[in-house]
């Protein structure tokens, strides 16, 4: 049989298959440059010895733990406060404790990143604790002495003053924002009333 002549071949052309399967979630992904990258977690085992010359020789066997929450007047007994509210001070920091201990010449170890399991907020807010040599005091006596010292620490006074100014600034900004919002609402109501009067015949 001879070859057929004049035949036309029709090639079907359809959409090309994608090189990779399409992910429907791609459109919801946050671009790399807009992602929030959290800082690395601090080393919770980090320690600072006082006095510094005993960094490699201090034996902390028998040292007692004191957290800022023990002396914090803003905490309840359930949250870990260990002395009376009238004797406690407002939001002491672990650095406050260390400075007060230094003023009393008491050996201790500062652990700035330790959290207090009884107060979960201490994991991210006001973390830290001190290990204290209580060989010359009971723990309760020492906590009361620290509470007496804390209000007069120069660094603490400066820090509390900064916090007070920041709070006043934030309250002022909130009040201004509320006043501005109320003004906008009043203006909108007035404009609507005027518009209704203008349509009356």
From TrEMBL:
InterPro entries: Signal_recog_particle_SRP19 (IPR002778), SRP19-like_sf (IPR036521). One of its GO terms (biological process) is SRP-dependent cotranslational protein targeting to membrane, signal sequence recognition. It is found in: Cytoplasm. It comes from Fistulifera solaris (Oleaginous diatom). GO terms for cellular component: signal recognition particle, endoplasmic reticulum targeting. Residues 168-201 are annotated as: Disordered. Residues 168-184 have a biased composition (Basic and acidic residues). Keywords: Cytoplasm, Ribonucleoprotein, Signal recognition particle. This is Signal recognition particle subunit SRP19. One of its GO terms (molecular function) is 7S RNA binding. Residues 191-201 have a biased composition (Basic residues). Gene3D superfamilies: Signal recognition particle, SRP19-like subunit. It holds the Pfam family SRP19.
């Amino acid at each position: 049989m001879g070859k057929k002549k004049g035949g036309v071949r029709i090639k079907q052309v359809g959409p090309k298959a994608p090189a990779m399967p399409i992910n429907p979630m791609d459109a919801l992904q946050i671009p790399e440059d807009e992602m929030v990258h959290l800082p690395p977690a601090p080393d919770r085992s980090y320690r600072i010895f006082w006095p510094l010359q005993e960094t490699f020789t201090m034996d902390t066997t028998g040292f007692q733990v004191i957290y800022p929450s023990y002396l914090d007047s803003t905490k309840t007994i359930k949250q870990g406060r260990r002395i009376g509210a009238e004797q406690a001070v407002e939001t002491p920091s672990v650095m406050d404790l260390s400075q007060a201990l230094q003023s009393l010449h008491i050996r201790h170890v500062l652990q700035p990143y330790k959290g207090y399991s009884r107060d979960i907020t201490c994991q991210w807010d006001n973390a830290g604790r001190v290990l204290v040599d209580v060989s010359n005091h009971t723990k309760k006596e020492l906590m009361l002495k620290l509470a007496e010292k804390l209000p007069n620490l120069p660094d603490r006074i400066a820090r509390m003053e900064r916090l007070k100014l920041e709070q006043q600034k934030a309250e002022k900004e909130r009040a201004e924002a509320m006043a501005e919002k109320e003004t906008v609402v009043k203006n909108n109501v007035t404009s609507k009333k005027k518009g209704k009067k203008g349509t009356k015949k």
